[in-house]
């Protein structure tokens, strides 16, 4: 790991140096060209037009030449040519990719605390990649040769956590019926906090209040999500909703609405809804079409209206969870008051998230919540990052996680 950090630090130093040289060339170019242009004015006689024009052309050529020198260095290091230097270090260091204008250095990744049996292999493979290719290939093949946990089974690394948290029956139900309820997970105080933070129908709520991050990182939820959408899963979106009497019902649909059908045997997307008010038949609760997940396809236009569905019933403070392939919607609210819900979606690590946040927002969350938040933000894998396979630890982890 230290070796990785060292390489990362050197990349930053090189990036800063290239920027410094490019900017210096530019400044020298400007100073020289101004000097050359002002030379004709230094003689006693007023400069004529030809002398002045040739001084301006010469000055601009100096400026161009100096900029080309800096741009050439950039080309030599990064393979792209730009005449003018960028204003910030960010443009020279592809590890930092959001659009803020100040130089930015991402905090180091928190060490993994929940170690699994092949984590040692990942670390060793990462270390050996540059120094000992033969050993690396052997370790890599061991990772590659690992077979996937069959769909619906609990991975051996996860099994102790599932047992400890008493979630075995929920895992079975989620797999067989396409949904399950984790009963009464929230303490009364936590439930009140979630309710207070729920202001209306809103998307992108994760950074709005600490209670949302805590809800996403709940131990039971994280464990059953790993069962459903595999190790290294991501946070895809987080939203709040309020349903009142007379509000339209949500039609039957599958959440993984942009995945091709027939759906894959492994689930790709898990929705977890924290019920902030009781789910009853009259409350406008989520409705499920039993057995629909095993069809592994979308409902037809006709089936959307004709499929018999039943409400999920649970107390406020429980979490209703369903598989991305299950047909579901919500029913009419026929009583006064409101049904408040915090919706969280988790994805298998290779499925792109519905929402992302600026890098600095993610970093603040990771600093505050550590490893599990870094995982939800996809920091332990190599996918969709500027570094790509250069992050060989991330590459190795992606291979290992995809099989657990
Ligand atoms: O509001 C509901 O009960 C269901 C919402 C829904 O379909 C979802 O969050 O995926
Ligand atoms: Fe849905």
Structural write-up:
- There is one protein chain.
- Residues 95-104 have low confidence and may be disordered.
- The chain has helices at residues 2-38, 49-78, 119-131, 133-144, 159-164, 168-177, 188-197, 210-216, 219-229, 301-306, 359-369, 371-376, 392-403, and strands spanning 179-182, 234-244, 250-253, 269-275, 286-288, 310-311, 319-323, 328-330, 338-347.
- The two termini are 22 Å apart.
- It has 13 helices and nine strands.
- The protein has two domains: 3-99; 159-355, Jelly Rolls.
- Helix 3 (119-131) packs antiparallel against helix 4 (133-144) and helix 3 (119-131) runs antiparallel to helix 13.
- Helix content is 42%, strand content 12%.
- Strands 1-7-4-9-2 form a five-stranded antiparallel β-sheet. It has a four-stranded antiparallel β-sheet with strand order 3-8-5-6.
- The protein has 404 residues and is an alpha+beta fold.
- The chain is elongated, with a radius of gyration of 28 Å.
């Amino acid at each position: 790991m230290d070796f990785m950090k060292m390489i990362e630090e050197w990349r930053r130093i090189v990036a800063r140096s290239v920027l410094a040289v490019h900017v210096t060339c530019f400044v020298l170019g400007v100073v020289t060209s101004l000097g050359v242009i002002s030379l004709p004015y230094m003689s006693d006689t007023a400069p004529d037009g030809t002398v002045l024009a040739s001084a301006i052309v010469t000055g601009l050529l100096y400026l161009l030449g100096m900029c080309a020198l800096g741009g050439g260095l950039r080309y030599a290091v990064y393979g792209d040519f730009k005449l003018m230097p960028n204003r910030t270090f960010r443009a020279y260091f592809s590890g930092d990719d959001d659009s803020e204008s100040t130089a930015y250095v991402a905090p180091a990744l928190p060490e993994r605390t929940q170690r699994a049996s092949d984590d040692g292999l990942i670390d060793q493979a990462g270390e050996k990649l540059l120094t000992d290719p033969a050993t690396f290939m052997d370790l890599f093949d061991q990772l590659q040769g690992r077979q996937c946990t069959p769909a619906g089974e609990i991975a051996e690394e996860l099994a102790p956590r599932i047992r400890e948290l008493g979630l075995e029956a929920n895992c079975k139900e989620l797999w067989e019926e396409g949904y399950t309820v984790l009963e009464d997970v929230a303490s009364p105080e936590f439930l009140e906090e979630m309710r207070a933070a729920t202001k209306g129908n809103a998307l992108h709520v994760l950074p709005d209040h600490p209670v949302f991050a805590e809800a996403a990182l709940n131990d039971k939820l994280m464990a059953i999500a790993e069962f459903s959408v595999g190790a290294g899963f991501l946070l895809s979106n987080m939203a709040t909703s309020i349903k009142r009497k007379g509000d339209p019902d949500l039609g039957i649909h599958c959440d993984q609405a942009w995945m091709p059908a027939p759906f894959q045997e492994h689930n790709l997307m898990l929705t977890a809804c924290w019920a902030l008010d009781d789910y009853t038949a009259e409350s406008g609760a989520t409705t499920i079409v039993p057995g629909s997940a095993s069809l592994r396809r979308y409902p037809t236009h006709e089936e959307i209206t004709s499929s018999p569905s039943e409400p999920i019933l649970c107390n406020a403070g429980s979490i209703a969870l369903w598989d991305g392939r299950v047909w579901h919607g919500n029913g009419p609210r026929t009583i006064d008051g409101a049904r408040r819900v915090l919706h969280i979606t988790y994805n298998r690590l290779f499925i792109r998230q519905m929402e992302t946040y600026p890098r600095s927002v993610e970093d603040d969350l990771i600093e505050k919540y550590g490893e599990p938040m870094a995982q939800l933000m996809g920091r332990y894998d190599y996918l969709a990052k500027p570094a790509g396979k250069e992050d060989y630890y991330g590459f190795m982890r992606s291979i290992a996680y995809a099989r657990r």
